[in-house]
Design goal:
Distance between the termini: 77 Å
Number of helices: 3
Shape: flat
Order of helices and strands: HHH
Length: about 90
């Protein structure tokens, strides 16, 4: 036996109000299992490579065009810190 479009539309309209009256249930997501990897200890970066890295960072900061005075001030502070690291006799270990 075939159903007519009118019969299908009536079934849909009758089911919609019943679902709206039910109380909403909040689904709590299941905690995903955490995979912890052991921390790999790496060799410290030599000071000369650190200095080269700081110089490169300083060059990149100089290329940035600030949009407002606050950003310019922040960039100037970051550049000053990089200059201090470059000029220092000993560098902090990364």
């Amino acid at each position: 036996m075939r159903t007519k479009k009118k019969d299908i539309e009536e079934d849909v309209t009758t089911t919609v109000p019943t679902t709206a009256q039910t109380t909403p249930t909040t689904e709590k997501p299941l905690p995903s299992p955490t995979v912890t990897e052991p921390v790999k200890l790496r060799e410290p970066i030599p000071e000369d490579q650190q200095r080269q890295l700081f110089k490169w960072m300083l060059e990149e900061k100089r290329k940035v065009k600030p949009k407002d005075p606050e950003e310019k001030k922040r960039l100037d502070e970051e550049k000053a810190i990089l200059k201090q690291f470059i000029r220092a006799k000993s560098l902090p270990k990364i």
